Amino acid sequence: MFLFFFFIMAIYHCNHSHVGRNTHRPGTAAAHISYITRESATSEIMASHMPEDRNRARRWIIEQELAERKNGRVIDKVNVALPLELNHEQQRQLVMDYGREMSQNRVPWLAVMHTKPQDAHNPHAHLVFRDRDIQTGKRVMMTTERGSTERFREVWEHVCNTHLAMHGHDVRIDRRTLKAQGIDRQPRIHVGPEANAAVGTGADLRSNVREDKKRIGQDRAAPKRKIDYPQIDKGMTRRAFNDHIIDLNLERLRRSPDYGTRLKADFEAGQRRKDRELLKQRDDIRRFASAANGELWEEYRDIRDRIVRTGKQERERMVTDLKSDYKPLWKGHFERRTKAFEEFEQQQREPSARLEQIKRSLPHLWSQLEPTQDKTRGKLSTVFKSTVTKEDRLSALTEHYKAEHQKLYMKYSDDKRVLYKLLRNEHDHDLDQAKKSWQDKRGAIRLETDRLWQDYGKQVKERNREKIFERENLQNYIDEYHKDFGGAPPSGGTARTNLQERIEKAREQTQHHDASGGGQDKPASHEKPKTVLEERIEKAKSSNKGGGRDYER
Fold first, then answer.
1. 3-state helix/strand/coil string of 291-352
2. N or C: which end of the chain has fewer CB within 10 A?
3. Are residues 432 and 469 in the same domain?
4. What is the mean pLDDT of residues 351-355?
5. Are 27 and 62 members of one domain?
6. Burial class (CB within 10 angstroms; exposed 0-12, middle 13-18, buried 19+) of 309
């Protein structure tokens, strides 16, 4: 049982989570749709009862969120791993059937496939369900009920295995844990896209002790569980730790008393060595893109900062020159203003002094005029009211020079604005040229990266087809061997080595036979054709029955 599940079980991954109005920030659902539908990763978008266009889907989900009650669930998010055994069209049909099965064609849902070359090792799909009946607006999937996540996982297992069987593949997925399946094997850990990308770009990764969101027990006052990642991964990255687990499992299988198990373990170890070459190529592409874009960004940033710095210096120099040009005008303005106010004060002081002098020199005249003052009282007041007072003249003088000051300042501001605009146009042109050059170079890097990813994707697809083809040939060989010889062969390494040499030789002959077969395509794995390896098995079998040398040797 252990052997069967280890070698022909496909990868199972189905993760379910949700976005609620009172558990997440406003716009989180729309942001999730923006992320999963990004152009750099999306290969195909499918939808039912909701917009398929990226921008329209965002606006639609925002409207749905605003219409949802304040403690309602906005969307359910599902992430599934697509089987490598299926081609793109078969994977697309699988995702469509899963969406229809879960929604019962009654609730809106959106599915996005990420199967571009950079995801060739990890094709997957993101699904978004809006659990509201399109007719009644009521719940259909009951995703808020206990056990809803298990239903998502169970339906995915059923639909995926149905499609694998429908297309003639023997592999299956199983949602149960390894312990529940009866498999004595250390489980692998999940390596997310961020961890893979960080390793691929050569980032310095360090583990830290993290505080889990879940609390210990049911008590809300209980402390949160702490996860000691440095103790778990022993200082290795998640990908390196995952590889370490796989190597340990294969090493355990190499020590198995069963001959077929040891042979399969050696076969899988060889496949991993070949896969590492592709993974190294994937990391090299990521490093190339990251380094090239980083250098290009630094170059553009330096040019941009230099243009901005030069523009600032030119503006300061321009303002200094303009101030120098306007300095004589300001000086003349303030000199005229000062002189005018001094003359005004002088004019106000002269009549007062003359009047005081008359009062002191002719006191007898004033005594003679005293009796007549009652008769003339009020006549001079009307005369003074018709004349301009000191305050009026001072106010008029102040307004005059204030207007002159404003006029000069406006002229200065207009000249500075015109010069600023000329400088800004020149610098904006330089900035636009620098940005356009950066975008053109970045576009060239993107085209080169896309070409590398396309080549890489072709190699991965060919590698997967080859792996499936060789694994089925190996399984056929082991089945034929156990059918004819029953017991296990000697456990020494020589027998395994000779057998591996014969398998490699048969594989080369198979490839040569396919290459010289008039351009015929390699038969599909589920057709199980009679290969050169099987012919060699029959030849060795007949030789052993006819008294020839022992087949195992």
1. HHHHHHHHHHHHHHHHHHHHHHHHHHHHHHHHHHHHHHHHHHHHHHHHHHHHHHHHHHHHHH
2. N
3. no
4. 65
5. yes
6. exposed
Confidence of residue 61 (pLDDT cuts 50, 70, 90): very high
Within this chain, do residues 433 and 515 fall inside the same structural domain, yes or no? no
Nearest to 496 by CA among 158, 275, 266: 266
Is 238 part of any domain?
no
Tokens of 407: 């006029």
> How far is 279 from 122, CA to CA, in rounded Å?
11
C-beta contacts of 147-152 below 8 A and 24+ residues apart: 148/16, 149/16, 152/14, 152/16, 152/78, 152/102
- The residue written with tokens 């050059």 in the block is 437
Note whether 62 and 85 are same-domain residues: yes
Q: What is the pTM of this model?
A: 0.62
Listed in sequence order, the DSSP H helices in 85-124 are 88-103
Identify whether residues 398 and 494 lie together within a single domain. no
Residue 538 pLDDT: 55
| Per-residue pLDDT tens digits for 86-111 | 999 999 999 999 999 999 999 999 99
Domain assignment present for residue 367? The answer is no
Determine the Cα–Cα distance for residues 535 and 436; give it in Å rounded to an integer.
62
pLDDT digits (tens, 9 = 90+) for 371-391: 555 555 555 555 555 555 677
Q: What is the pLDDT of residue 278?
A: 85
Residues 51 and 151 occupy one common structural domain: yes
Cβ(189)–Cβ(234) under 8 Å?
A: no
Q: Give Cβ neighbours of residue 19 (< 8 Å, ≥ 6 apart).
A: 28, 29, 32, 73, 74, 75, 77
Q: Under DSSP, is residue 79 helix (H, G, I), strand (E, B) or coil?
A: strand
Greater confidence, 400 or 232?
Answer: 400
Is residue 314 located within the same domain as residue 433? yes
Q: Who has greater pLDDT, 229 or 77?
A: 77
Is position 196 within any domain? no
Q: Which residues span the domain enclosing 78?
A: 1-185
Q: Report, as an integer, the average pLDDT of 8-12.
A: 68
Domain boundary among 146, 167, 185: 185
Rounded-to-integer distance, Cα 347 and Cα 388, Å = 13
DSSP 8-state symbol, 234: T
- Structurally, the chain folds into a number of domains equal to 3
Residue 257 contacts residue 453 (beta carbons within 8 Å): no
